[in-house]
Amino acid sequence: MHAEAIRLIEELQLHVHPEGGYYREVFRSSSYVISAAGAQRSAMTSIYYLLDGGSFSNWHRLDADETWHFYCGSPLTLTIIDPAGNLSTRTLSAHGPWQTTIALNAHFAAHVADESGYALVGCNVAPGFEFADFHLATRAILTAAYPQHAAVIARYART
Fold first, then answer.
1. What are the angstrom distances between the C-alpha of 54 and each of 4, 110, 148, 154, 155?
2. Number of structural domains found in the chain
3. Chain centroid to CA 154: how far?
4. CA dist., res. 132 & res. 54, Å (int)
5. Which domain, by its residues, includes 36?
6. Which H or E run includes 65?
7. What gap in Å lies between CA 87 and CA 142, rounded to an integer?
């Protein structure tokens, strides 16, 4: 792992994330809203998220919109399959763009192409993130739903 990534993990007090990478929640709104699913949730949450080049963020989806903000490191690529099955990629880097939003219910994964690099980003979720609404995708279920994307699904799935 890159020495700067190790330093940031320690300095920012990041923890292992179930999807891969490291994170720490830094803000949770004290205001509440009702989500599209009818649940009461914080209006917004925010985390630091670090992904090193030797890993990836496993396919997952949220029941909320998530905006990613690039802070430093190597370019980070998000691979997205929207609910209609359309595949797209977005890369955040120091050269821009510096942020992008993943719409609720899209499946997505992330990686840093530079194997010796890392990326530090921030993620804001609105309505706020709850692990109960975090859906880690399996390779089998995602491939069954989107067989046309089997190769890219396999690349960013651990199971």
1. 14, 12, 26, 16, 13
2. 1
3. 17
4. 28
5. 3-155
6. strand 65-73
7. 13
Cα–Cα distance, 133 to 65 (Å, whole number): 12
Cβ–Cβ under 8 Å, residues 102 and 108 = yes
Residue with tokens 């399959």: 81
Distance CA 46, CA 136 (A): 19
Contacts of residue 125, defined as CB under 8 A and 6 or more positions apart, other chains included, come to 44, 45, 46, 62, 64, 65, 66, 67
How many angstroms from the chain centroid is the CA of residue 118? 14
Which among 45, 89, 41, 36 has a CA at the least distance from the CA of 67?
Answer: 45
Q: Token pair for residue 141?
A: 């279920």
Task: Write out the chain's pLDDT in tens, 159 residues.
Answer: 889 999 999 999 999 998 899 999 999 999 999 987 788 999 999 999 999 998 999 999 998 999 999 999 999 999 999 999 999 999 999 999 999 999 999 999 999 989 999 999 999 999 998 887 888 899 999 999 999 999 999 999 986
Q: For residue 148, give the CATH number of its domain.
A: 2.60.120.10
